[in-house]
Each structure stands twice: as C-alpha cells, then as structure tokens.
Amino acid sequence: MIGILSAFGAATSWTYACCIWRTQTQKYKSIDINLIKNIIAFLVFIPAFINLSSITELKHIFILLISGIIGIGLGDTFYLKSLQTIGTRKTLSIETLSPLIAALSGETFINENLATKSWVGIIIVSISLFIILKKGNNLKEENAPFSEKNNIKIFAFPFLSVLCAVLGGLFSRMVFLQSNLSPFLTTEIRLLGAIIFLISLKGFNINFFLKDIEKKQQKKFLISILLGTNIGILLQQVVFKTLPIGLGWALLSTSPVISLFFAKNEEREITKKIIFFTCFLLFGLTLIIL
C-alpha cells in the first residue's frame, strides 16, 4: 500500500511541477532548468548523507550515480526539451509507452515475472492513457519549432526521455533488491550523479537564471522543485523499493489523468470519451493493484 500511495503522490507532484517548468522552457534552455532544479533539490536533501555508512558498497553508490545520470540528468533534460519542441500532449502520448517498456525491462533483466492480470492491467493503462491524450485535441500547445512532417525530430526527445527514465528506474530497483539503502539516501545520490554529469556537459558554465525572473515566478519555481524533484523523486524511489518496476511504473504514469484536474488552466475540454477511458484506466489500475 505504501508503494501504491507513493506512486500516486509522485505522479501528482510531477504533474504540478511540469505545469510550471513548461512555462520556463519557453525562455531558458532545458539543460539549464534541469541543472538548477537538481542543484537546489540536492541542497535541500543534503542531510541524507548522514546515513551514508562506511559499509555501504561502492558498487551500489556507483550504480545509483549512473541511475541519476541516465534517469535524471539525461531523462529529465530530454523530457523538458520535448515539452519545449512538440508540446505537452505529444510528449505525454509517447510517455504512455513507459509502463510496457518498464515491465519488459523488469522481466528481462531482473526476472520480475508478472501475473497475467498485471500484464493485462499494464496494457489497459497504456492504451487508455494514449487515447485520453489523443482525445485532448483542445489542449493548448506551444509553438513547436519542428515540422509535423519531420517525425524523427518530433519523436526523438520523448522516446529518449522514456528510455532514460526507465533505465534509471531499473538501476534503482536493482540496488534496492541488493541492499538496504533508504529511498532518501538513494534520491540524494541519484541527484548528485545528475548534477556532476550536467555540470560537466556544460563545461562548468552554470546559468543561474532564477535571478532574472520575477519573485512570484521564483517562488513558483522553488515550489515546483520541492514537489517535482525532492518529493517526486523520493516517492518514486519508495515505489522502486516496494513494487516491481513494471507495476510501479504503470502507477507512476497516471500523470495525464491527474492533469485533468488542471484542465481549465490547460484550456482542455473534458469529453465523455475522456471520462470513459479514464474509468477504463482505473479498471486497469485495479487489476494491477489487486
């Protein structure tokens, strides 16, 4: 039950944070937004290192650093870049593949064999999410700089975001299966890995853009970091610790449904079809949970 509640909490936190980050992608580079949010989140959680014991195996720390580089450093940057270039709906449409990819990865690499009903639930969730997003034709989109005809450029960023996020989660799950490290500490180590990678990638040229935005926007941005990065990743780690990665990812992928609560802000019409497939999705989640 802790893992289930954590998944929904993480999805809610991430959804709200993305509403704020998306507005920033129109003004600043995705890599800059990702780096600044990770640095601030790391500083908030720095007391977690108190629990770092001398008996902690270096291989687990190394795997978590790699997990942070791939899942947070690369994955979040690709996600933000995708929001910037093709908009929210198309990005989330590709993200609906993540539960299936996560379930296949868990079964292939760490022998997490799921029951038939769980597979059916994951498929229902993925299909429902995709249809819900395809029906959201009234969702306001930013001006995408890439042409619809250029499929490779349109879908490269969200696909890479999905692959990186799942791979980062898989590494975290592997560590939890082999150690007793806490979600709190693993979150901080993953953030450290992401920061080291992004700073190196930028040649130590950090753009502290927070000083250039209004105080009201600064507060919103800091709240989004606390919710989307600190709380979001922490709850995500709880999910990876307590649930098989395929099941956990299906629950974490409910952000599009949660975003319906922000429909007014997104100028999106909630149709009968969206309501139907939301109920169908809940049926899929029930199969997964039970």
From TrEMBL:
The chain crosses the membrane at residues 35-55, 61-80, 154-177, 189-209, 221-239, 245-263, 270-289. It comes from the Bacteria. GO terms for cellular component: membrane. Keywords: Membrane, Transmembrane, Transmembrane helix. InterPro entries: EamA_dom, EmrE-like. Residues 1-133 form the EamA domain. Belongs to the EamA transporter family. This is EamA domain-containing protein.
